[in-house]
Amino acid sequence: MCLFTDLLGDPLCRIRNSPDFLMLTATGSGGGGGAEIIGLVRGCVKSVVSGGSHSKDPIYTKVAYILGLRVSPNHRRKGVGRKLVERMEQWFRQKGAEYSYMATEQDNEASVRLFTSRCGYSKFRAPSLLVHPVFRHALKPSRRASIVRLEPRDAERLYRWHFAAVEFFPADIDAVLSNALSLGTFLALPAGTSWDGDVEAFLAAPPASWAVLSVWNCMDAFRLEVRGAPRLMRAAAGATRLVDRAAPWLRIPSIPNLFAPFGLYFLYGLGGAGPEAPRLVRALCRHAHNMARRGGCGVVATEVAALEPVRAGVPHWARLGAEDLWCIKRLADGYNHGLLGDWTKAPPGSSIFVDPREF
């Protein structure tokens, strides 16, 4: 089986919302004597919080993200991918990026080998992609949690306060939260906790437990499709949907039709504090599931660090997820961060911020 991505006619959909972005193509001689595209790569540049930052004094670093590297099967093992990466890195340096990083699945040996053995990248972080199907029936809201929607300005204040020391937190979080694809930021509090809409008062005296997340509409940017599935698997998945449709009160977990183009909502900015934070995150995920159901999505997904404190509260199906690998390379020659030094050698933090614009 393989996962096919339909970019809906926009090859820049995964980077065009970033501050600076570029797509490069490699061409070769076609069979008819003309030129044909044999490879492509995309990249973007932005400022993010780097490792070793402190909440009172975050260190922002200009980083580049490289993604979507593709080479025609007939032209692989000929250095095309490496040349595309090197040309993209030249543009990164022109934009002042100090680091370049990429993401792939841990079991993608060809990609890992290209970047680590030939392009000078080192293995850096290993977040997990957690995916949950969207059922035909809605999930009951939690009675033990109150969920409020935050305005983008209030969400920005909360995020800058909570994620100030979290790796890869973007300096332009305001642009992320106000983007048309961002469907809202939601704060969960224990049931009965008073909320008067004053974020400043919340930051000055936060409750014992709370949680937050935002929802990004990937469905309007691209669609996914699982291809090559056995007929028996497709039939079994269809049967769960039939039962769920006929008897929704049974609340049987039904598998959406992932074998036709489907959309997803991406949950970003997951965070919280207190002993009840994982439970509150679970309530937020149920809320996001129902949003995705109304939006016609097939799955909801998020990506979290291995030691993320609220990870236990994220419902997911292990068979739908993946273990990712982020590799990083230092582009700048000097060290501009004093005691921080080389970020590539910094130990991982408990959390990581995954920018939805490049998911």
TrEMBL record:
SUPFAM superfamilies named in the record: Acyl-CoA N-acyltransferases (Nat)
One Pfam entry name: Acetyltransf_1
GO molecular function annotation: acyltransferase activity, transferring groups other than amino-acyl groups
Residues annotated as domain N-acetyltransferase: 1-142
Gene3D superfamilies: 3.40.630.30
Protein name as catalogued: N-acetyltransferase domain-containing protein
Biological source species: Triticum turgidum subsp. durum
Top-level taxonomy: Eukaryota, Viridiplantae, Streptophyta, Embryophyta, Tracheophyta
